[in-house]
Specification:
The complex is a heterodimer.
Chain A lengths: L3 H57 L7 H4 L6 E7 L9 H18 L3 E7 L1 H11 L3 E5 L9 H16 L5 E11 L2 E10 L16 E3 L2 H75 L1
Chain B lengths: L4 E6 L4 E14 L2 E6 L5 E5 L2 E7 L3 E6 L2 E6 L2 E6 L2 E3 L5 H17 L2 H22 L1
Parallel strand pairs in B: 1-8
Antiparallel strand pairs in B: 1-2, 2-3, 2-5, 4-7, 5-6, 6-9, 7-8
Helix pairs in contact in B: 1-2
Classes of the chains: A alpha/beta, B alpha+beta.
Chain lengths: ~290, ~130
Amino acid sequence: MPSLKDLKNKITSIKNTRKITKAMQMVAAAKLRRAQEAAEAGRPYAERMNAVMAGLSASVGTSSSAPRLLAGTGEDKVHLLVVMTAERGLCGGFNSSIVRMARLQANKLLAEGKTVKILTVGKKGREQLKRDFASHFIGHVDLSEVKRVGYAQAQGISRDILARFDAGEFDVATLFFNRFQSVISQVPTAQQVIPAQFDAEDAGDSVALYDYEPSEEGILADLLPRGVATQVFTALLENGASEQGARMSAMDNATRNAGDMIDKYTTIYNRSRQAAITKELIEIISGAEAL
Amino acid sequence: MAATLQFDLVSPEKRLASFQAVEVQIPGANGDMTAMEGHAATITTLRPGILKAVGTDKTLAFAVTGGFAEINAAGISVLAEQAVPVEDLSGTVLDGMIDQARELAAVALPEDKDDAEKLVQDMMALRQHASH
């Protein structure tokens, strides 16, 4: 049976924890709004980009002169997994859900006898994957110093990926990130970026009617690397919004749990206090009766 | 009143401009072109230069570093990798861009070297143009 003082200390400590989680929740809420705005602002560019590239690749894709970024290397041996996670924890299952998905994929590829290489973005994912896949790591992008993810970071990452592709280090590249759906739901997503894949319906209509300057192939060769950067950027933005959303709901839960615990311990505290008073009274009364 | 076309300028980070323009001057990869209402549907890549949109009541100019423009019956949308309003364009901003381009040119693969060098030259031309 803990003493009254212990209980009181415990309650104070939980109250402090609740203050912290409450503050974190509010910070996450503010950041979430900004992240969501950023994700929405980036959407028109990504959509137009995809539509144009889908149209182009539909007309060029079948020819033998198609760029390697679109047609692939013709092999399917070495896979690059770009695992994008947060730099910080305390955001519920956000990091683990991405890592779980990446791990499943890696194990599946390894079982098929393929080579897996992993590029991590964000240190949480790296820490979680280190135990099983440390030997597959080929690089890490640290964004902990970056306050606001910009296109420049996405360009940096995509440049790294493209350089490795040009050097023949891998055949297929896949991005792993969380797609933001709502504050309570983030969907872990795997998106193949090299060779580029497009939904047929993105192609839009009457694409074939355009004049191209320079040639279709020239434009496509120019656009594909930009497309990789755009996809990385979209993934970073979606991830940013998801992280804040996940953190917000995790901290909301934590705040509520702390409240429940405070109630529980306050009840115990009051009962013990009452018991102590009753005990003292009984002692006094039985002492008086004994006289 | 002159016929207008819908003009949109978007960068990866945000939508920079969207209004009815009378004419839009684009620094196309193969040379400058001006798009007006009824222009043939065209997709062109951009070289670094000044993009100028003349509206009925305002004229906006942006320095763009690359990307592409799509002209169709609905209007013209320019997807610029980086776009800075000319008013905000100072020597330091440009120098930053030029340095970036130089760095890229330095590490470019042999077959991309010419393109990267050309980018630097285009940037320098832009710098010269802006300083006047």
